[in-house]
Amino acid sequence: MAIMTEHLYIVFDEKILRGEPIIKGTRTPVRAIVELWRMGLSPEEIRTKLPHLTLAQVFDALSYYNDHSEEIDEYIKKNTVPENLTDPVIRDLV
Predict the structure, then answer these.
(1) How sure is the predictor about 59, in pLDDT bands with cuts at 50, 70 and 90?
(2) What is the pLDDT of residue 24?
(3) 5 DSSP assignment
(4) Which residues contact residue 2 at a Cβ distance below 8 angstroms, ignoring those fewer than 6 apart?
(5) CB within 8 A of 6, min separation 6: which ones?
(6) What is the CA radius of gyration of the chain?
(7) What is the band of 93 on the pLDDT scale with cuts at 50, 70, 90?
(8) Domain ranges of the chain
(9) How far apart are CA 59 and CA 8, in angstroms?
């Protein structure tokens, strides 16, 4: 069962990504939106990469990150593939 947060579009559901904050009605984690934003994409560009989301959901995810940056940064860290496990060809593309 989803647990609401103080943000309209952000919920927790233990059955989805072990309770990581996600966009309500999706399996999209807040961290995915934050990572795209950190890569330099605007909220409008993020919306084109994740077309199942509304612009309001993208902005709410970024707002949630602003309020909970340490929590989301920890999820990002936990989900980063170590460099030694990444193919050199892929590393050169990034």
Answers:
(1) very high
(2) 96
(3) -
(4) 11, 12, 13, 24
(5) 67
(6) 14
(7) low
(8) 3-93
(9) 11
Q: Return the residue matching tokens 């990572």.
A: 35
Label residue 1 by pLDDT band (50, 70, 90).
confident
Contacting residues for 40 by C-beta, under 8 A, at least 6 apart: none
Per-residue pLDDT, averaged over 47-61, amounts to 97
Distance of alpha carbon 38 from alpha carbon 55, whole angstroms: 17
Q: Are 56 and 9 in contact (CB under 8 A)?
A: yes
CATH class of 3-93: mainly alpha
17-47: per-residue pLDDT in tens? 999 999 999 999 999 999 999 999 999 999 9
CA distance linking residue 67 with residue 8, whole number of Å: 14
- Residue 5 Cα to chain centre, angstroms: 15
